[in-house]
Design a protein that fits this description.
The protein is built from 25 helices and 22 strands. Among the domains are: 144 residues, no CATH class; 61 residues, no CATH class; 73 residues, no CATH class; 70 residues, no CATH class. The longest helix is centred in the last third of the chain and has 26 residues. The protein is an alpha+beta fold.
């Protein structure tokens, strides 16, 4: 069936045909073309409508359909024209056409020299008609030898050249310069999952991914955000749009885009060019900071050392007293593609480990580390390490190059070994098959070495060592005795009894800096390797700095939420002396000794140095908040605010430090309870004012019930307040057996996925 019609799409308001702008509302109108009209015989002739063509044409354009021929029920051939005058407008129309038709078109032939009368010409083919190539049997190919093709020919505008057109085409004088010949003869399905998953990612999706990358997301987390937003937009059935690759790309595309962006920003063609680019980045960073916070140096052996001391690190040096007592140093590798080593210097605090400096090297040799540490010392502020210029104690693992470098740069510091690493090294030695220790003897020998780590005095340490040497099991293994002697020769570095006079603050392991590395890889690097050392330095100076600022700010604002549990007998807590308390358990006959001066308890958590529930019970009943090492005092919180922001903080009053989020215990003072009640009433008034529709009826019911209650019923109601869940169980029912009512079951939460309303906040 052949017909020659004129299809017009008229936008409301101003006519924008030919400008590439698409109006918000479109009304399609199809009328016969006067110039090209020929007698037709089909049913569509004279109706002015072509459903197949009209379905795929983009809105916002004036399409002049000169010919239309249906080949089959879903295939046709057509020739139509548009009022388009430039090549950029052709590209824009093609983009809109691919979106409206749901098909991807590839270039099959281009015409660099279009001739005298053509401004632009290109031949297009369906993406499912690829060039034949050998394919593995198990691998699918999208080549279906599809016969759909499209030719785009843009005529030159004679009017712009101040000459009269001599073309025989009657539509050129009306501005229809773009000729489109379309053979819509696809031999495959157009809307199945196998087709839409091969579409190109749209510009909107690419822009969204770039924005997420700039916010610090990895390719996998960025794709999760897109899927989450898609689920929010599509409701409970996002299956159709999730299969469309233009909206929801695959993981491989996200990774390719990620590395393409960072390769463009960070890749250098050679090592010298990379070093020059890194120097430029460091210069820009120092210029922005207004001081020298990062330096790079190339050693005599050709290695590179980069030292960084950000503004937050400088403030930790000058304001935190712990920075001059004991610091923790450790290194980590495999952080980026060139496998540079990153060294982190940390100070202990009640807010966790705080950084004092970062060192990045291309080698783990002693000379390189020494050069890097000396370079880092040039960046430290005046009065570093809280005015001592050197720390009193440095704790590391048993890395000879690192320890020798630290001793050379900080000669007055006492170097200690991490107790955990010593035990781990002994365990590895015993469990190594080449050392010939029988499997049944390994635990006993390990326990013998453990007894050397935890003695209370030097005399006891010597006694236990002699006992280990005389142990019949140890005598069977001369290699073990030799290894034990080598380790014991350095007992001053790892024996706990010899650390009593050192300012270690109860820290016997290097786990603080190892935890910082683990959190850094999770929060700063997002479990993704930086592209090269330039990007790694960028992450240290931006993301890492922001991470510690957030941690300090959270600690300064929230303080510590004390525990309040039911298995602690608050009434029978006994005070032995000023700092010693005995806390009985409410569920057993056990008793726990709590010393608030050193922040220890005899329970397993307290022995590990954590703030346990027994210490929290003492704090809730007797106070002592300012004497517990784990709890930030008002002065500490003010100090953390100054370190995070660089501005002088205002010392908080004692009343300002009341933790309203913590559950008050029986020992809470009357003043604190009155303040909490006032805050509760103020919060309830704010809720009534901001959302009267929700809270008016419940508050009226609450006040009406309160007026009818006596003191006994009021006390009972206060005890039960908030303990009954308002959510009704689907299976809740009352039953009776043998005339006795079965007790009411607790209301269960509704199973299944949560409703959409609480999932409005983005993950980022």
């Amino acid at each position: 069936m052949t017909s020659f019609l004129h299809s017009q799409q008229v936008g409301e308001g101003e006519g924008k045909a030919g400008t590439g702008e698409r109006p918000l509302l479109e009304v399609r109108k199809m009328t016969p073309c006067v110039h090209c009209q020929q007698p037709g015989t089909g049913e569509e002739q004279g109706t002015g409508r072509h459903p197949l063509l009209e379905k795929i044409l983009p809105e916002g354009y004036d399409h002049l359909v000169c010919s239309y021929e249906e080949v089959s029920q879903a295939q046709f051939r057509s020739h139509f024209k548009l009022r388009i005058t430039s090549e950029d407008e052709v590209f824009k129309w093609l983009e809109y056409f691919q979106t409206s038709s749901g098909q991807v078109w590839r270039k099959s032939k281009t015409y660099p020299n279009c001739g005298r009368y053509n401004a632009y010409r290109v031949d297009l083919r369906c993406q499912h008609n690829t060039y034949p190539r050998p394919v593995k049997p198990a691998k699918k190919t999208k080549n279906m030898s599809c016969g759909a093709i499209m030719y785009l020919v843009l005529k030159r505008d004679a009017g712009s050249q101040n000459r009269k057109s001599r073309s025989g085409d009657p539509h050129i004088k009306d501005g229809y310069l773009l000729n489109i010949h379309l053979r819509y003869e696809h031999n495959h399905q157009l809307s199945c999952a196998d087709v839409v998953r091969k579409r190109d990612a749209s510009d909107e999706t690419i822009a969204k991914l770039k924005t997420l990358f700039e916010r610090g997301h990895s390719p996998s987390s960025a794709l999760d955000i897109i899927k989450y937003d898609l689920q929010e937009q599509e409701g409970e059935s996002p299956i159709y749009t999730a299969a469309d690759r233009s909206i929801c790309p695959d993981m491989y595309f996200c990774y390719r885009l990620y590395y393409k962006l960072f390769q463009k920003a960070y890749t250098a063609p050679s090592e010298e060019k990379m070093l020059a680019d890194l120097r430029d980045r460091l210069y820009q960073y120092n210029t922005v900071q207004g001081e020298t916070s990062a330096k790079m140096e190339k050693t005599e052996c050709g290695q590179v050392a980069i030292a960084v001391c950000t503004p937050v690190m400088r403030r930790v040096h000058t304001k935190l007293s712990e920075s001059g007592e004991i610091i923790f140093v450790d290194s980590s590798g495999n952080c980026e593609r060139q496998s540079h080593r990153i060294f982190l210097l940390l100070a202990h605090s009640t807010a966790g480990g705080l950084p004092l400096g970062v060192l990045i090297t291309t080698s783990e040799s002693q000379s390189t580390i020494t050069s890097g540490l000396r370079l880092l010392r040039t960046l430290l502020p005046a009065g570093s390490f809280f005015g001592r210029e050197q720390p009193q104690v440095i704790m590391t693992d048993d890395c000879r190059a690192l320890r020798q470098s630290l001793q050379a740069v900080f000669p007055d510091a006492k170097l200690l070994l991490c107790m955990f690493h010593q035990l781990q090294a002994m365990w590895r030695w015993l469990w190594s098959g080449r050392n010939g220790v029988a499997k049944q003897d390994r635990p006993q020998l390990l326990n013998s070495f453990k007894s050397l780590v935890y003695p209370d005095s030097t005399a006891l340490l010597t006694e236990r060592y002699n006992r280990c040497l005389a142990d019949p099991v140890a005598i069977k293994y001369p290699r073990f005795l030799h290894y034990l002697a080598e380790v014991y020769r350095r007992h001053e570095e790892w024996a706990i009894c010899l650390r009593n006079e050192l300012p270690t603050r109860g820290q016997n392991t290097n786990s603080l800096v190892e935890s910082a590395f683990r959190v850094g890889k999770e929060k700063v690097l997002h479990r993704l390797k930086p592209y090269n050392v330039t990007q790694l330095v960028d992450f240290v100076t931006t993301r890492m700095e922001a991470h510690y600022i957030r941690r300090l700010t959270d600690t300064a604002n929230d303080g510590v939420a004390f525990l309040h549990v039911n298995d602690v007998d608050y009434e029978n807590i006994a005070q032995v002396d000023e700092n010693h308390y005995v806390v009985p358990s409410a569920t057993s006959e056990l008793q726990y000794d709590v010393d608030v001066a050193i922040g220890c308890c005899t329970c397993s958590d307290g022995l590990a140095g954590a703030l346990c529930k027994h210490q929290s019970a003492v704090l809730n009943k007797f106070g002592h908040h300012e004497s517990v090492p784990h709890v930030p005092t008002p002065q500490m919180r003010t100090l953390y605010h100054e370190i995070a922001t660089g501005s002088e903080g205002v010392l908080l009053k004692a009343s300002d430090c009341t933790n309203v989020n913590a559950s008050p215990g029986p020992g809470t003072s009357a003043e604190a309870l009155e303040e909490m009640l006032a805050q509760f009433c103020s919060s309830l008034k704010d809720k009534l004012h901001n959302d009267p529709q929700t809270f008016t009826a419940p508050i009226c019911t609450f006040l009406g019930t309160y007026k009818k209650m006596n003191d006994s019923s009021l006390a009972s109601a206060l005890h039960c307040f908030g303990k009954m869940s308002p959510v009704k169980s689907k299976n809740r029912r009352s039953s009776k057996m043998n005339g006795t009512a079965i007790g009411k079951r607790k209301a269960a939460l509704i199973p299944g996925r949560p409703p959409k309303c609480p999932r409005k906040e983005h993950l980022y």
